[in-house]
Design brief:
four-stranded parallel beta sheet, Rossmann fold, 155 residues, single chain, alpha/beta
Length: 155
């Protein structure tokens, strides 16, 4: 059964592939913020695992999660083993790979997953970049009269 939304559009499947437990932690955190998640999984790349076994798990997940709209694969870093393994699916599966996964990216993907796959990949990339800021620098450049007020200051 396809994962359809109320308007009949299909959800893109989501896989987070990362070193150690980073992917599973991101999904648990997203679930804490958004509530129950569906049509997603994480795959850990660990020293003790054989590459062919990890590739098999990745292919199985991509096949299982593709309900007709494709699968977005979010990886931790460009050039790393998780990304290289994910890239091996480009020719054989309806997937897009986005590197540099972070929590803002994951949240945006989950809340935009009815977007067409290629567009969702661009949206994911933009969200990941926008989620990286140096707050202190932003606050130092703020004019004094625009300093954030505490919630109690207006009472």
């Amino acid at each position: 059964m396809a994962a359809e939304t109320n308007d009949g559009s299909l959800d893109v499947g989501i896989i987070v592939v990362a070193h150690a437990d980073y992917g599973s932690v991101l999904l648990r955190t997203a679930e804490f913020i958004l509530g129950p998640l569906s049509d997603c999984t994480s795959i850990s790349v660990d020293i003790g695992q054989e590459v062919p076994e990890t590739v098999r798990r990745l292919k199985d997940a991509a096949q299982r999660l593709d309900k007709g709209a494709g699968v977005i694969i979010l990886t931790d870093m460009f050039g790393g083993t998780p990304t290289n393994l994910a890239l091996s699916l480009l020719a054989s599966h309806n997937v897009e790979v986005v590197t540099g996964v972070n929590l803002p990216m994951v949240l945006k993907v989950f809340t935009s997953r009815t977007t067409p796959l290629a567009e969702l990949a661009k949206t994911a990339c933009e969200a990941g970049i926008k989620g990286i800021v140096v707050p202190g620098a932003m606050l130092k450049n703020r004019p004094a009269d625009k300093t954030p007020k505490s919630p109690d200051s207006g009472r």
